[in-house]
Amino acid sequence: MSRRILDELGLASAAHADALAAGDKTFVPVHTGSHDLRIGTLLDLLDRDPTLVPPRTGHLGNWEDIALGRSGPMDFNTAICGAGHGYPLIYGFTRTEADTEGGDEAYQPGSVIQHGRREVMTLRTWDGSAFVRRGRDRPLFCPVVQAEVDGELVPLVDLHWRRMSAIPGFRFRQWAAVVVENSHLVADMLTLLIEQADGTAKQGTRLSELISQVARPDGTVGRCDVVRDGSAYVLEGYRFPSARSLAEAVLELVRALVEPAAFFDRLAGLPPVLPVMSLQLTNVLFGLLHTHRPEDGAEPPESPFITHLHWGARAMAGCPPRRSGYLTRRSTVRSLRALASPLVRHFDEARPLAFVLLPAQTFMLCPPSTSPADIELLQGLLADLRTTDAERAYDITTAWLARHGERLSSYLRGRFRSGSGVPADGTTRPPAVPVEPAGFRDLTFRQACAAVAALEEAYG
Q1: Whole-number mean pLDDT of the chain?
Q2: Which residues make Cβ contacts (< 8 Å) with residue 337, sequence separation at least 6?
């Protein structure tokens, strides 16, 4: 099955499928934005295999206006999840927006946004004896935050999850729930990786690639150092007696996303510092835990390797070659491969992994149904793009923008503005659905990425 998917997409060679099948390679990333794969070819494959649903990793926060197609730069989520090309897999290890940098300004989890209007919530975190109000002077780590609602404290995670679960047509799933469902396996995997980690290794895994940050009950989170001391591990002065105890501590914050009320009930008895699972390990687990087949959890693992399709947005996928995302950077790939290799060697449940990255921003070329003029204009651009090769797609888009760019609506231009998220300017916008302009599916992902990059540079 895994090889068939790559063959149908024309990516078997790029993924080194033979080497994966033989076990000679354990992790190979393939960015479709660097290949001449037709968008329609991928979407047709997904239509033929209803069990294959690539995750679109979004963040905890405000999804109501996203689901209604009026979220500006976040509309690619609507196009993917609303049309069934993927499903929203929610990553909750984020921080509330604040007056200083570092918070999640896209999904703004420290507020409630509806109909373009933002209500800033009162937030509290634990100071060692009580939950105290926190200002907006710094971002707060979402899993340890409570919000005041009608005079009561509600876990911030629970508040947003209830709101998101009430949205019709969107099959939300928590990444943390997938990990908790496989917690025994993940704890075993993490224990092995911790035991094998070497702080100075050039080829193996470093502890910082497993535990990237430390969170405290007061909401602060930041980089950390984990130091091995014999069989024990010391994190910011707190001693974990074994690799297993450190691995179990990592899972505490994961469980906080799934069972937040229970987490807060035991918070006073937890260590004063809690290790945060790294994004590198999270990405490996996306594939090894089969999040691309969300309804097939009881099925045997794919063999002889796993083909994991994943919709990545600005940070993860970018728009190659003008702007690459983090997943395919050489240093990231080295880290991901170093994490995957011992897991594949030691666990029957793990298979070599072909990680096929699908750039979600492709769908930024699909205007909202409320803007027929934009749809007609974009059809003209796509007609120009289909007549040329991918190498010229950026230049053709740039030239087209010089002639027609000012005719695009301010809403569509705003999609490509850097640093923007769900609109909260108080403007009431009607619900809409993203519309594929004629010829959209005939574009290759490489052509679409080049066009989006040109639009980002023009309006960002």
Answers
A1: 94
A2: 26, 27
